[in-house]
Amino acid sequence: MAGDTKRPGEHADRQARSSGEAPTVRVRVPATTANLGPGFDTLGLALGLHDHVELTALDDGPSVVEVHGEGAGRVPRDERHLVLKAACATYDLAGVARPPLHLTCHNEIPHSRGLGSSASAAVAGIVAACALLGPGKAPDDAAVLDLAARFDGHADNVAACLYGGLVVTWCEGGSYRGTRLTPRPEVVPVVFVSEHSSSTEATRGLLPDRIPHADAAFTAARSALVVHALTCAPGLLLPATEDRLHQPYRRPAYPATADLVDALRAAEVPAVVSGAGPTVLALTTGEPLPEGLPTSGFTTMWLPIDTEGAVVTG
Fold first, then answer.
1. Total-model pTM
2. pLDDT digit string (tens) for 66-121?
3. In 3-state terms, what secondary structure has residue 247?
4. ∠ CA(211), CA(212), CA(218), 5° rounding?
5. DSSP character for 171?
6. Which pairing describes strands 188-194 and 43-57: parallel, antiparallel, or unpaired?
7. Which DSSP helix (H) or strand (E) runs through 172?
């Protein structure tokens, strides 16, 4: 894991000793964007937009959930809450009895927009639980990634959230794995967040069972090229982000998203659908955006690449 999460238990132990209160940990997790065009279910990038969670182990009583910001009043406030479910799954994996937990979430990442909100929630719960469990009891880094990927279903998002930067993920021997790469510093993501939400399950249902061999070869080449472009040659990002594997088939689900991607690319701005959409991701090098883009219904946000990933902040 990235940042302070290498030895997360120290934070909770130190705080509990100094205050005499129940141990509490605080975790910051970034938003993520997946696929990056051709890298379907493989590539992910962490973005500088964050959720913050606080998890306290209680002596007795029921678990408690508080939610502020995104999702407040809409998400469950009991053990169905995704962060709490992920924390409980971590205790189960460690073989340790789960204490009652008090969870407080301060959310900035939009929900169901293609910015990895569910992955960030799963990672936040797992990392916070690892910090409460402490060294020697918490699952190791490989187990954390695999648990988060299985819990969320998207290894590309969870690896980017855990590690920060650019990630490549794969499944080997039945376990999810990931490696982190460092993007070029001049790459500046811009996200156009749609006012509409989208379901990953619904948009995935639009994908065909088979695609032409030529399209598979085209997308494989572009997937390799986008890694090279992001880490070595940003000038190649426009051709590198072309895709024939999933985006063309998802166009009916969000025509405004597709139109914005088309308009950006026509203006030679590398643009793709962020994850399953409907948010649009542009990978710029800091130049101004062209005028006259069809951005009605979208909120434009210039975001840095998050290079730390999930961090225990206290």
1. 0.90
2. 999 999 988 988 889 999 999 999 999 999 999 999 999 999 999 999 999 999 99
3. helix
4. 100
5. E
6. unpaired
7. strand 166-172
